[in-house]
Amino acid sequence: MVGISISPALTGLFDSFAISVIIALSLFAFSAMYLSIFVGGKICSLKKADLDLGVSKNDSQHGSACAWLSMISIAQRIRSCVDMIFSPLQLFYTKPIAIFPGLSLLLYNAVQSYIFAAIMVHTSVHFGFSSKENGMLLSIAHAVSATYLVLTLIAIPRITRGLAGTRYQDSVSASTRYQATKDAFFALLSLSAQAISLILFAAAARSWQIYPISALTALGLAAPSYIKSHFVGFFSPTDGARAVAVMAIMETLGSLLAPVLLGGMQALRPGRDVFLVGATMVMGSAFLFGVGAFMQRFEKIQEVERQEPEPG
Questions:
Q1: What's the rounded Cα separation, in Å, for the pair 197 and 144?
Q2: Please, what sign has the CA dihedral across residues 190, 196, 202, 204?
Q3: What does the pLDDT look like over 199-226, one tens digit per residue?
Q4: Rounded-to-integer distance, Cα 158 and Cα 116, Å
């Protein structure tokens, strides 16, 4: 979040777009080198030993067969990688109510992944913003969002635990229920703030109004953190990894749909309509999350009741 907060302002300092691209590629290359050196391990790597089919490469008679079988082996491994990537989606089959928060996150990301591009296009066309003003706009939004996340996820809980003292240690289960309720509340609050801010963007008539509206939009940037935290909290530690993975897939799918849905909308109908459509999608995301949170809570209560011993 810190990197996202400072990046727009930094890129806005350069007059040439090419310099920003070169710096971005350099940072990506550095990150890739760091991961390969210090993290290690390559997913779905193809090794020579795996492709050794017992056919001599110097044997011209079997050369074409070796190449063909190697291609088949590579295709099978690519397919196994794809199956592995999308295997977490089986969670929707084993736990159907998980589709509600999943679709909620997909809809949210379908809006969020494009909405700042739509904002910059809108401010440039209607208010004459340059890259410097748009960069400052994004920096304000992401800085507010980072502060919001730090306060609600780290600072406030630690202060609460410190004030509670030993009473906190005696109520772990109650604390877990409180965490789920808190995540649901802040998720709905963030989604509501996002929807309201998009409506205000459509109604903005002065350039100075864009900045406070962007700060309000920033509160919506924290929504995925609370949606995922609430969702994963209802799974056991063994299923928690699959829950995180399936939410990551839904986020990715939402990001892929964003330029098609909202980008196409803005291209066909330039103006304020893209913000109204985005607000409608965010409200749909909030509705789906609310339904999913209620059903997850109801299922958890039933599970606890089944585990309780019968009296007598």
A1: 14
A2: negative
A3: 998 888 888 888 888 888 888 888 888 8
A4: 33
